[in-house]
# Entry
Amino acid sequence: METVLVTGARGFLGKKIVKALLKNGHSVKAFSRTIDKELKSLPIQTISGDITNLESMMLALEGVDGVIHTASKVGMWGEYSDFYTTNVIGTENLIKACISNKVKKLVYTSTPSVVFGKDDLCGVDESTPYPKNYLTHYAKTKSIAEKFVLKSNGIGGLVTTALRPHLIYGEDDPNLLPRLAEASRAGKLKRVGPGKNLVDIIYVDNAADSHVKAYEVLSKNSNNQGKAYFISQERPVNCWEFINQLLEISNAPKVCREVPIWLAYTVGSIYELFYGLFRIKRSEPPMTRFVALQLGKSHYFNLINAKKDFGYDPKITIEHSLKLMKSRYKS
# Structure
């Protein structure tokens, strides 16, 4: 088996990938800004560092066969330079360090947001073009990084691929479920649109397994080299029915009230203008144009290429994943 460096190893997805690699017999280096007790308890090498520091990456990649790169700056608001430094410069540093250290392969964690403009995305595949304009710095910088990763395939013996997991959920989720529950309890969560939009989701264990599978298949002769792939569950779900299922798990009130998409989008525009004029960067607006469209539009994807090129198959169903979450939150 191989020695694999996981960036962002302390994160929700990164930690699951570390455990999945160990389960498959790989040796793991966990790279993150900070290292927590759980990572330290695992039979791995832990490295505290910053991907925006090239020297730090050079040292971390010594003796490494491959990388799974999950580290990124996520958010709907903030300074463009902050997103660019982490998501673009950090990824460029990583690839430079990979080539310098003769690392064989790299799996990059991207996002379906790289192809989301303003319209519904219904069952589309990876031939969907990048939009001309983005509504978030996150999506724009992730698209720049994804393009760079894929263009780097074959340079200096490095082979690359990118995965686009959509709406990761599961036990110990630090982002999606807590934010939904907090907004619901505060009476601030309203359904955007008529509530008929379908979206893709992915249970965190399936997302981790997809990364390990893509990594193990990846080679100079594999079908997945130099390509990006959508990754999700076995089927799309109704966005607001699923949100209510998550709220029920966390004992938060279900969403009952509704606002039209156009109104949510307009409110998001006003908030963005206000936050921009007064240079409010440390907190996110209650609504943005991107969030309004994500909550009101459909966005689900065709997984045939991932299944064909590296055998992707979500092992844990939506129903079983929700049962696992319910039992965890009750305990």
About this structure: The radius of gyration is 19 Å. The chain is about 40% helix and 15% strand. The mean pLDDT is 95.
